[in-house]
């Protein structure tokens, strides 16, 4: 039996935050479907931390095809959701189809992994209130405004929600998410 995981993203998503979970989850044996506002070649970015800059810098990253448009997604077909960061969440959070998708996963108690700026999407969907989540540290005010508790950590687990600050947290974040998946969405 194939277990499908939905990864929602768009242009200007952080390359590592899309590609690492995509490849790591496939390595585990899950089928990962990339959804975006439209079926097209997405253009990701690389965010890096450089001496002399007060915040991260941005450079062009990988391109990758979206398998599905948000409006085509039937969230019932998926066992879990991954919400990468980068700049994409800033404009994706207003998408009504994406909000519908996110609301389904939280209402059903399905596993959700979010990282970096990903909580901008879950906050806009109104599903973070009362939860604990990590996020890129600059988003702490946004997390608090959404009624959630900000936690500074590489693998914050709140029930079936697993979150992290940014791509340097990948090992802890994916390790914790895979543990949740093995319980909630086993491959066999």
TrEMBL record:
Classification via CDD domains: GATase1_PfpI_1
Q: Which UniProt keywords apply?
A: Hydrolase, Protease
Task: Give any Pfam family that matches.
Answer: DJ-1_PfpI
Q: Which organism was this protein described from? A: Streptomyces sulfonofaciens
Q: A single GO molecular function, which one?
A: peptidase activity
The name under which this protein is listed is Protease
One of this protein's GO BP terms? proteolysis
| Family membership | Belongs to the peptidase C56 family.
Where would I find the DJ-1/PfpI domain in this sequence? Answer: 4-179
Database matches in Gene3D superfamilies: 3.40.50.880
Q: Which InterPro entries match?
A: C56_PfpI-like (IPR006286), Class_I_gatase-like (IPR029062), DJ-1/PfpI (IPR002818)
């Amino acid at each position: 039996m194939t277990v499908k995981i939905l990864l929602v993203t768009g242009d200007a998503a952080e390359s590592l935050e899309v590609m690492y979970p995509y490849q790591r989850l496939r390595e585990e044996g899950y089928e990962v479907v990339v959804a975006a506002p439209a079926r097209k070649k997405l253009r990701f970015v690389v965010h890096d931390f450089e001496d002399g800059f007060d915040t991260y810098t941005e450079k062009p990253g990988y391109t990758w095809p979206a398998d599905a448009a948000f409006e085509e997604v039937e969230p019932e077909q998926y066992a879990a959701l991954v919400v990468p960061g980068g700049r994409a969440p800033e404009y994706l959070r207003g998408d009504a189809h994406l909000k519908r998708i996110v609301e389904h996963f939280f209402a059903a108690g399905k596993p959700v992994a979010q990282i970096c700026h990903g909580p901008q999407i879950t906050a806009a969907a109104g599903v973070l209130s009362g939860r604990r989540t990590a996020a890129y540290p600059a988003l702490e005010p946004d997390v608090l405004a959404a009624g959630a508790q900000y936690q500074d950590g590489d693998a914050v687990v709140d029930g079936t929600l697993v979150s992290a600050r940014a791509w340097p947290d990948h090992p802890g974040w994916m390790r914790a998410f895979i543990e949740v998946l093995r319980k909630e969405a086993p491959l066999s």
